[in-house]
């Protein structure tokens, strides 16, 4: 009798728990990946089908110059669950992710890379956490793979600086994220033209769950992220989420004023006491310090002004040249 009551209690509790269900849209930005994109999509599809997850792919070609678009178009014609979009030119990964997010219309969405460095085996677990009520399930890098020591050092400095100077913590964060529809709607209300998906997804908040993963080696080819592109992304991210660099200018001004008081007092003392020596060493050093400080300060101000310049122009984040869904052109 007691067991029957326990079973009834558990059954009643399960009835109250509403497990979410919905189609999962997988957004993948693609650039110069024509030689392996078909194999990557096949691997992800196999895992989704094994776990009976209703899915659709949104593949965004970011202006590739190889055969990437031909491969995506063929995939979209062969499978009704695949939509292929082609941007008019290479707008960058962030813009391609924007295109996928804005096109999707599902209850839940996942962003991942096309080279399988984000392990697709984690998708069923991420989807399960979403069903349990989490609104953001994000992949956190437990290991950065074969990145060089210099890259790891720069990444550590960047994430520490961003964490200390802004309200978001992106340490070991990645673009491998599963987002609930309400998160995507919040993301769409952010109007900036220069986007940083990782930071924007962290800024919106919501109930979150982190899953650690090791960055795999690429299935083939080389990374398209050169040091300069990573540096540009880092500068864009820092100036999007913190104004601390601007305050550095004020701090430098106070430091220079303090040095002026010390050196000015010493110079006057030497002059009045008749101990002043001929020479320009001190003058040259001062000019170099002041000159470099002024140039760095102008550069920091220039970066912020350029961001304002790009924002006020109000140009679209991207333009779509072609789109194929279920074998038919949609734009």
From TrEMBL:
Organism: Anaerocolumna cellulosilytica
CC per GO annotation: plasma membrane
Name of this chain's protein: Glycosyltransferase
Keywords: Glycosyltransferase, Membrane, Transferase, Transmembrane, Transmembrane helix
Cited Gene3D superfamilies: Spore Coat Polysaccharide Biosynthesis Protein SpsA, Chain A
Topology versus the membrane: Multi-pass membrane protein
Organism ancestry: Bacteria, Bacillati, Bacillota, Clostridia, Lachnospirales
Gene Ontology MF annotations: glycosyltransferase activity
Family annotation (InterPro entries): Glyco_trans_2-like, Glycosyltransferase_2, Nucleotide-diphossugar_trans
UniProt cross-references to Pfam families, sorted A to Z: Glycos_transf_2
Compartmental location: Membrane
